[in-house]
């Protein structure tokens, strides 16, 4: 089957056009194809499916086969995919996700999308299924002391349609995420597991972030994670609302604007290559 390899700020997925036919067992396919040595390689796969209520429906699967409820970097690439191919050649595109319909405004040059701004919806607290801490159900937990990897960390909980915790640290470069990441991801505090962002505040409009993603490990960028990061920074007094904040990630920058009604994310969308794979 034909696939397209795309990335947003280096968060790379393998995309399949499922508008005509569905892929069986996407969970196993994601595990197999995400392997960076024995297959195409990626942070997971993304299926572009028909929708009754939007231009298309996005289903994304992490590298471990688990299905994510929302993916910020992937949704920009889905908008690029359908714009560039004339499936929906318009500046404002709607994409259905497991976390509702998201609106994407695309920026194109010579008929090809280069970047997009996504209305990621309203930031919220984690749902009662996502967290076992009573006071954290449905509300932001701000600076909650959490034990992980033999240390205590102050974390802030944020849902962007998928669950995140954000912790502010003096330095991110020296963190051994391969070692500590799984302790956060699999903490018993989060029954559906958790995405974790480690953040250094550079100034009121610039943050540096690394992420350990649920189901994919450390990725070069996380769109929902960058939105959770700026939300947590506003809640902790490090940044201002209604202001563009640049989140510096290993794979590139994302510009995030937190407002009380919605979080907006702007970033690139890049097509790397096309190919065919036995599925
Ligand atoms: N690992 C996430 C999904 C991918 C999110 C991330 N890649 C993004 O760009 O938002 C989860 O299971 O909730």
TrEMBL record:
Task: Enumerate the GO terms in the molecular function aspect.
Answer: diaminopimelate epimerase activity
EC assignment: 5.1.1.7
Subcellular location, record wording: Cytoplasm
For whether the record's keyword set contains Isomerase, the answer is yes
Q: What is its main location?
A: cytoplasm
Q: Which GO terms describe its biological process?
A: lysine biosynthetic process via diaminopimelate
Does the keyword Cytoplasm feature in the UniProt annotation? yes
User: Which pathway does the UniProt entry assign to this protein?
Assistant: Amino-acid biosynthesis; L-lysine biosynthesis via DAP pathway; DL-2,6-diaminopimelate from LL-2,6-diaminopimelate: step 1/1
Q: Where is this site: Could be important to modulate the pK values of the two catalytic cysteine residues?
A: 164, 213
Q: Which residues form the active site?
A: 71, 222
The organism's place on the tree of life at top rank: Bacteria
- Listed GO CC annotations: cytosol
Q: Which reaction does it catalyse?
A: (2S,6S)-2,6-diaminopimelate = meso-2,6-diaminopimelate
What Pfam families has UniProt attached to this entry?
DAP_epimerase (PF01678)
Protein residues bound to substrate: 11, 62, 72-73, 162, 195, 213-214, 223-224
Q: Which InterPro entries match?
A: DAP_epimerase_AS, DAP_epimerase_DapF
Enzyme type, top EC level: isomerase
Q: Which UniProt keywords apply?
A: Amino-acid biosynthesis, Cytoplasm, Isomerase, Lysine biosynthesis
Family, according to the entry, reads as follows:
Belongs to the diaminopimelate epimerase family.
Q: How does the record describe its quaternary structure?
A: Homodimer.
This chain's function reads:
Catalyzes the stereoinversion of LL-2,6-diaminopimelate (L,L-DAP) to meso-diaminopimelate (meso-DAP), a precursor of L-lysine and an essential component of the bacterial peptidoglycan.
- Protein name, as recorded: Diaminopimelate epimerase
Originating organism: Youngiibacter fragilis 232.1
């Amino acid at each position: 089957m034909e696939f397209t390899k795309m990335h947003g700020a280096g968060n790379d997925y393998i995309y399949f056009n499922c508008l005509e036919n569905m892929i069986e067992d996407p969970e196993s396919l994601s595990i197999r194809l995400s392997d960076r040595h024995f297959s195409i390689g990626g942070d997971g796969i993304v299926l572009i499916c028909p929708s009754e209520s939007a231009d298309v429906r996005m289903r994304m699967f992490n590298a471990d086969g688990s299905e994510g409820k929302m993916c910020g970097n992937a949704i920009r690439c889905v908008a690029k995919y359908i714009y560039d191919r004339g499936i929906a050649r318009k500046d404002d595109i709607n994409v259905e996700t497991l976390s509702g319909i998201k609106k994407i405004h695309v920026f194109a040059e010579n008929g090809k999308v280069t970047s997009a701004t996504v209305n990621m919806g309203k930031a919220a607290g984690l749902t009662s299924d996502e967290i076992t801490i009573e006071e954290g159900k449905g509300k932001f937990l701000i600076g909650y002391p959490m034990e992980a990897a033999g240390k205590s960390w102050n974390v802030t909980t944020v849902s962007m349609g998928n669950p995140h915790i954000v912790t502010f640290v003096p330095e991110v470069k020296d963190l051994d995420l391969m070692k500590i990441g799984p302790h956060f991801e699999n903490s018993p505090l989060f029954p559906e597991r958790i995405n974790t962002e480690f953040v250094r505040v550079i100034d009121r409009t610039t943050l540096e972030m690394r992420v350990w993603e649920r189901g994919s490990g450390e990725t070069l960028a996380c769109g929902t994670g960058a939105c959770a990061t700026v939300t947590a920074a506003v809640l902790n007094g490090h940044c201002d609302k209604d202001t563009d904040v640049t989140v510096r990630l290993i794979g590139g920058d994302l510009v995030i604007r937190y407002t009380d009604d919605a979080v907006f994310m702007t970033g690139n969308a890049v097509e790397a290559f096309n190919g065919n794979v036995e599925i």
